From TrEMBL:
Similarity annotation: Belongs to the RRF family.
Source organism of the structure: Stagnihabitans tardus
Descriptive protein name: Ribosome-recycling factor
Matching InterPro entries: Ribosome_recyc_fac, Ribosome_recyc_fac_dom, RRF_sf
Recorded superkingdom: Bacteria
GO MF annotations, alphabetized: ribosomal large subunit binding
């Protein structure tokens, strides 16, 4: 049995955990605190032409004023689907159609809306934690396979500790990111 068969690729596991953190950063960037931004629509996917498509691939997104986002949908047949996706996104924005344009007036953030956004941020953080835990589980499965192929008890314990430590660090970063974003949202 070659030594390489018994080593665990922690770099690949770390890259996957970092990917979960980057996805969370992007989702948090979409949670705007009262100001309009084109990036707030980034996580929204529209069921277009038989597949889920990002809104920015279905039209031009502009921010003409601080509390307004305007989407110029290229295919008129997609307007209703884009509106539906925005309504169901959890952003709390009610789209208004104006021909090929969809106007998104960004509501003033009241206390209730801030709390809702904090809950959405918590959901995003929980999804990231689940992703990190799935990577951890895959790492532990690799270790079990390596043990079945002759890895010693001491090596198994060392690898399990290393994977767990990576997981704990990522979860801690996610918690800090959530804490920061929640404070930003609740700031009046």
């Amino acid at each position: 049995m070659a030594q390489d068969d018994l080593d665990i690729d922690t770099d690949a596991l770390q890259r996957r955990m970092d990917g979960a953190l980057n996805a969370l950063k992007n989702e948090f960037a979409s949670l705007r605190t009262g100001r309009a931004s084109a990036s707030m629509l980034d996580p929204i996917q529209v069921d277009a032409y038989g597949q889920m498509t990002p809104i920015n691939q279905l039209g031009t997104i502009n921010v003409p004023e601080p509390r307004m986002v305007v989407i110029n949908v290229w295919d008129k047949g997609m307007i209703a689907k884009v509106e539906k996706a925005i309504r169901e996104s959890g952003l709390g924005i009610n789209p208004v159609s104006d021909g090929p344009l969809i106007r998104l007036p960004i509501p003033e953030l009241n206390e209730q809306r801030r709390r809702e956004l904090t809950k959405v941020a918590s959901q995003y953080a929980e999804h990231a934690k689940v992703s990190v835990r799935n990577v951890r589980r895959d790492g532990m499965d690799q270790i079990k396979k390596a043990k079945a192929n002759g890895m010693g008890e001491d090596d198994q314990k060392m690898w399990q500790d290393e994977v767990q430590e990576m997981t704990d660090k990522c979860i801690l970063v996610i918690d800090k990111m959530l804490e920061t974003k929640s404070a930003e949202i609740m700031q009046v």
